[in-house]
Protein: ROK family protein
Organism: Brevibacterium sediminis
Amino acid sequence: MTLPATVAVDVGGTKIRAGSVIDGELAHVRSVPTPAADGAQAVLNTIAEVAAAVIAETSGSRGAGSASRGAVTGSHGVGSTSSAAESGGGGGSDSDFVWRIGIGAAGVIDPVTGTVVSATESLPGWAGTDVVSELSARTDLPVRVVNDVHAHALGEAAAGASSGTRSSLLVAAGTGIGGGFITDGHLLTGRNSAAGHIGHVPSAAAAGLACPCGGTGHVEAIASGPAILETYRRLARVSGEPDLVQSERAAQGQPHESASETSSESPNSTPAPTALFGSPFSASSPATATSSNLAPVPTNTRELAAAASAGDELALRAFDIGARALGSALGGIVNVLSPELVVIGGGLADMDETWWAPLREAFAAELIPAASGTPLVKAELGQDAALIGAAGLWEDAPGQKKETH
């Protein structure tokens, strides 16, 4: 007897995670750095190598009799398995596996063709890569691939916060903001496989701010982790907090300036429009008051979160601005899609009520009466959601037309 077994892989710009999924159970998870700077071929080789390692470890844990397809190391980490694939199942042991690979990967992914439609510079040369063909050639195993946030949505719907619902919206809020919409148990990918780009919904709070996509005024430009940190820096400049600005300059290796120079915006800096902060800011505005002896000045979102928890009012204000912008955008999306549940994952979801309270408030305020009461909850599976979702690609292939009866 042979068992279907999946090597589930999550490919990000900094790390690749992989594990085996058999009978719905995730095991033998390992993580390796993504060789992003070395290009797409190096990334594909690493995926193949880590897949081989997962297969070998899984087979070893089942005993010597569980010789599985795909566990022989070759020039790219996985050797030829064609003879096993053709025979239909290894050496006849009742624990033999029929292996396949499911991948959630960064970038806009066409799940039908298995190609990367577009990608950011976090994975140089990734755009245009035929992931399915390339990895099938390296492993001699069938491969399916989808966007990594889409995989997260599938994972949470299969075994996490949205399990048991017919429709759900997964929002990944962290370095960027992405999403995945599940309806009637199926992933919505859209005509160009780009469905779910929640971070690029227009936001009044982000008016005039540059978005990583090259546009301006998108919610990611005000509500992502890096954007919230940048809001904090703008608030510090506008509030005229010399100690904060000088500490920031020192951390960045910039020259020391006088208090009078730091209290005003330079001609090339981004101004703080009324729309961005909700009200004009000045040094005397209560919302800008902060403890100027905080050191060091936060240099990343995690440090900023710690500053907010410690009562830094500028940090609290920055998170409030970002959370409300995202909550408002999500409310508008729910008015259009009407999911049963909205699930929030990503690094920002680990924040306390500093972020969650304004997010919920702005979300609820935006909902039309018919959508009122739509739950907004935290994701449950963490990083494993993408692996579980990637394995689920073999239960339901996204982008494929479903037969109706």
Observations:
- Residues 64-94, 242-295, 401-405 have pLDDT under 50 and may be disordered.
- The longest strand covers residues 2-11.
